[in-house]
Amino acid sequence: MGTFSYSQSKLNIFLTPSDSLNKVRKKTVYVIEASAAGLALVGLNQLWYADYPQSKFHFFNDNNEWMQLDKIGHFYSTYHVGRFGAELLAWSGASKKEQLCYGATLGFGFLTAVEVFDGFSQEWGFSWGDMLANASGTGLYITQELLWKEQRIIPKFSFHKTSYAAIRPETLGSSLNEQLLKDYNGQTYWLSFNLYSFIKNKHVPKWLNLAVGYGAEGMLYGNNKEAIADGFSQNPNRQLYLSLDVDLTKIETKSHFLKTVFSLFNTVKIPAPTLELGDFNGVKGHLVYF
Question: What confidence tens digit (pLDDT) does each residue in 242-262 have?
Answer without folding.
Answer: 999 999 999 999 999 999 999
